[in-house]
Amino acid sequence: MTIAFTVILLGLAALIYPLRKNRFYLLNSALIIGAAYFIETHYFRVQNVLSYKTLLLFAVFQIVTINLTTFVAYGVDKRAAIKKQWRVAENDLHMLEFLGGWIGAWLAQKIFHHKTAKKSFQNMYRLMIVLEFAAIWLIIKLIKS
Q1: How far apart are CA 26 and CA 28, in angstroms?
Q2: What pLDDT, on the 0 to 100 scale, is given for residue 113?
Q3: At what angle do helices 2-15 and 23-42 cross, to 10 degrees?
Q4: C-beta separation of 73 from 97 below 8 A
Q5: Residue 49 has pLDDT above 70, yes or no
Q6: Does the predicted model carry a pTM greater than 0.70?
Q7: Mean pLDDT lowest for which of 22-26, 29-33, 55-59?
Q8: Coil, strand or helix: which one is 124?
């Protein structure tokens, strides 16, 4: 399971160039791989890495960790904005939202009051949600056929 998850995450980074430079995606990947390793060594070992249960477990890990990572990324960006330091690129934030972190982004926007007034950012945020659901719909459509 750990190896399968690592291959999936590195494969995504190889296919999607901006992910290679997104340090928060790397954090997300490390969290998923660490969780998979913990589950595999302490609870059970998966026999078939391409089984429905393994893919479902990966999806759960991805949803939980990407939202935590996105929340942290917004917090880091807000802190950098206050201290007038190097900021997190908006493209990195949007990529995290597209990968499933839009709930973490929404919570961070409400809690940190960050990126809520900038209309162009909010429009792109909404577009990332629509694109994510379109991608999920397309993947499900491809799997069924």
Answers
A1: 5
A2: 92
A3: 160
A4: no
A5: no
A6: yes
A7: 55-59
A8: helix
